Amino acid sequence: MKSHPAAVNDGMSIRMAAAKYDIPPKTLANKFNGKHQKKVGCSNTFTLEEEAEISKILVRCSTIGVPLGKRSLIKIVKAIAIAKGMDWAKFTNQWYRKFLRRNREVSLRMLSALSFKKCPEWTAARCEEWISLLQNLSDEGFLDNPSGIWNLDESGFRLAELYDRVYAERGVKEAVGYVKGSESDRENISLLAMGDAAGKMLRPLILYKEKMHIESHFRDTHDACYNGTYYSGVMHTDVQTDFWRKNFFRPSSVPR
After folding, report:
1. Burial of 202 by CB count in 10 Å (0-12 exposed, 13-18 middle, 19+ buried)?
2. N or C, which terminus of the chain has less Cβ within 10 Å?
3. What is the residue-wise DSSP string for 42-104?
4. Would the pLDDT of 182 be above 50?
């Protein structure tokens, strides 16, 4: 479009330039006379400054551990639009995609839940204490025999996928969302795996959130795992003690 007014400035008439470039004469005349100063297309619902403030809200919420998802973003922008008297504003998927393109400091990340209870427990002092303990065990020769070095790990697996994609500052690997950390906020099973450095593996412990076993817990397991139950689904000392007594203190193992 820039070359069209230039042609008129070079002496070509508006009608001739319109015919040459296949543009309506009225449109070219308005452009030449400066009547088309606004950006072509519909105006944005929010100004760039307002969208920048919304982006700051998203990043700030992610930083303090309460990241927001797409549904929360739509609720926020709808409330802002109503407060501005723009009840007609529609926030479609097209608006959503353009919003993310215009505000590159915000990106979508997979939500990673972190318990409020566990978060403050692992401090720098406890980390140093753990490293010192390992060094003492090594100095005393406890780590020389691979069959005497055991490692265990407990993981939780949700029976229903509850993860969501939320907004966070661009560049971060994951967005942390803090949860209550109580025994009633998990609907999952816990798995405890244990083995030594020589390659021996004990039967894994599978803990169900039940007060008693049901037949399906043992179906097709072929005694290759130890099934436990606890009303909260969270690992308990009574369950672990029974597991050690029936597995660790007898030569029961599964192939590596």
Report:
1. buried
2. C
3. PPPSS-HHHHHHHHHHHHHHHHTT---BHHHHHHHHHHHHHHTT-TT----HHHHHHHHHH-T
4. no
Check pLDDT > 90 for residue 69: no
Rounded CA separation 178/181 (Å): 8
- Name, of 6-20, 100-114, 175-189, the range with top average pLDDT: 100-114
Task: Decide if 248 contacts 202 (C-beta within 8 A).
Answer: yes
Cβ count near 177 (within 10 Å): 19
Residue type, 146: P
Q: Shortest CA distance to 109 belongs to which of 58, 158, 172, 66?
A: 172
Can you state the percent helix, strand and coil of the chain, rounding each to 5?
40, 20, 40
Three-class SS state of 195: strand
Considering only CA atoms, which of 247, 205, 244 is closest in space to residue 226?
205
* Tokens of residue 1, six digits: 């479009």
H-type alpha helices, 84-189: 93-102, 124-139
